[in-house]
């Protein structure tokens, strides 16, 4: 297993969100994210034009794998996340925004996401994960057989990474990350070699220890699960960046913002549900509050659909 080279992060703005019209007005702070040479950090702004830097993209169907780290017993979040990845985001007008990104040969990202497999692994690395520890959790789940791999003929227990996979390490509320979860960022994505294969993965934690820094809504939420709903938006952010900038050398702007960074915490117009929660997207009849993504058409813009 090789060490990861760099990280793409979703950061957060300081302070709790006020209730009322301004509750979704939240902005990222500079982070340690370095998806390109010399990048010192980003502020989340959409001003710089996003450009292609020659690296690979995930093409064809993106296979999502989830590693449930820690204690998720009794939580409604696994069901919500797996439905989102398995039924709702793939083929949606929202994920279709990513089809505006292509590689050097002009091959575009496909609007297809498959929830492939999940595994509950407990606490093999304790309750505080380093960045290297997150990658090791991914490697162990793959090479140890906890996660089967998708092949054109179906699921196989091959114990090798899926080159079209994105492996999400989702940690329960009692697990932290030693490099800044809840103090510097809400999630990140990266890559590294597992069994000699370039493997894309992401870290997203349950933010209930300090929910206001990683959730736009901390009391009511579209699916009556504020922490789970918050994770959904971060998962969407890291998924779309993992597809359009998997090795951190493909699509980003002059100050290092990847496509989702450029619209971080920007939700656009919202509607209020009967429980008081705001939502901005409906997928297969389920409401979500998910940040917008950068539509790479013309001069570009944050958008909810394409």
- Rounded to the nearest angstrom, the radius of gyration is 18 Å
> In total, how many beta strands?
18
Largest sheet: 6 strands, mixed
Outline type: globular
What is the overall pLDDT average? Answer: 87
What is the ordering of alpha helices and beta strands? EEEHEEHEEEEEEHEEEEEEE
- Give the fraction of residues assigned to helices: 10-25%
Q: Number of helix segments?
A: 3
Number of domains: 1
Strand line-up in the sheet with most strands: 1-10-11-8-3-4
Low-pLDDT ranges: 1-6, 13-44
Percent in strands: 25-35%
Based on secondary structure, the structural category is alpha/beta
Terminal residue distance? 38 Å
Could you please describe the fold and organization of this structure?
The protein is an alpha/beta fold and 306 residues long. Helices cover 14% and strands 25% of the residues. The protein has three helices and 18 strands. The chain has a six-stranded mixed beta sheet. It has a two-stranded antiparallel ribbon with strand order 2-12. Helix 1 (77-88) packs parallel to helix 3 (226-244). The longest helix is centred in the C-terminal third of the chain and has 19 residues, at 226-244.
Task: Write a brief caption for the model.
The chain has 306 residues and is α/β, with parallel strands linked by helices. The protein is built from three helices and 18 strands.
Observed structural traits:
two-stranded antiparallel ribbon; 25% strand
Write the layout of secondary structure elements.
Layout: E1 8-10, E2 50-52, E3 62-69, H1 77-88, E4 113-122, E5 128-129, H2 131-143, E6 149-151, E7 154-156, E8 165-171, E9 176-177, E10 187-194, E11 197-205, H3 226-244, E12 251-253, E13 271-272, E14 278-279, E15 281-283, E16 286-288, E17 293-295, E18 301-303
Helix pairs in contact: 1-3
